[in-house]
Amino acid sequence: MTYTENDALAAKGTSPNRVAAFFDVDETLIRGSSSFILAQELWRRGIVGWADIAAAAKGAWKYVLFGEDKEEIDALVQRALKCLEGHSEAEIIAIGEEIYDQFFASRIFPRAKELLEDHRGRGHDVWLISATPSQITDLLARRLGATGGIGTRVALDENGRCLPRLISPLMHGAGKVGAVHWLARKRNIDLSLSYAYSDSANDLPLLRAVGHPAAINPDPKLRLAALASGWRIYDMRWRKRGDLSNSAKKTAKRSAKVAAAIWLTRLVVRQLRRILR
């Protein structure tokens, strides 16, 4: 599904009547960072250099350990755009097909795949939405049998080669929820009856936009929000079937206090760094 900055002005549809499930990708459907996996393959092919792969690795580890960081993501996007400049969309798609078979397929959380397939079985639209390049998001959606994908779109020249700029909002935070509202208008989706799954507090606007939000492998801030709101929590990294039972919620609440302390410490450190710059 094509989504650009101009689509923020899309016309309103008729009365909503569809139900949809929206899945984030990294650490929600797939273990780790899909962008880092892509960067590894681009490095192997000589498209990116050591400095680029090191930056991607740093971002991936920070993502896994501490959750998303907007400044880090923005810097990685600019670096990635410079690396992709001049390469064809067809080349990126071909690389994506290879890394799906080699890496993505084995990193999909089985329980997340079950959730996706359950929504399909109930006749729901299923959409993957991620800051990952749209070519990769579309590929993942197709391979997993989802309705479609919405990813970050890179500008192309008349020959189908990448330009160093975006033609869509970055599918992150407010960008995601904007795309979901656009999609709801285009496809007559009733968001009050729909579902959303994410691991990151940056997706709280998306989760709050639907009637049935859930957290998968949540970062500390999202875990706190999910517990406070009574949302379902799935811990798929450590548990074979990840939804927390009622008996486990007391333990989760205690651990959430520790998680909150870690998150607050990170926030204070970031503020101090900004002051001292």
UniProtKB/TrEMBL annotation:
InterPro entries: HAD-like_SerB (IPR050582), HAD-like_sf (IPR036412), HAD_hydro_SerB1 (IPR006385), HAD_sf (IPR023214). CDD domains: HAD_PGPPase. Gene3D superfamilies: HAD superfamily/HAD-like, SG protein - dephosphorylation function. It comes from the Bacteria. Pfam families: HAD. Keywords: Hydrolase, Magnesium, Metal-binding. GO terms for molecular function: hydrolase activity; metal ion binding. SUPFAM superfamilies: HAD-like. Belongs to the HAD-like hydrolase superfamily. SerB family. This is HAD hydrolase, family IB. It comes from Winkia neuii BV029A5.
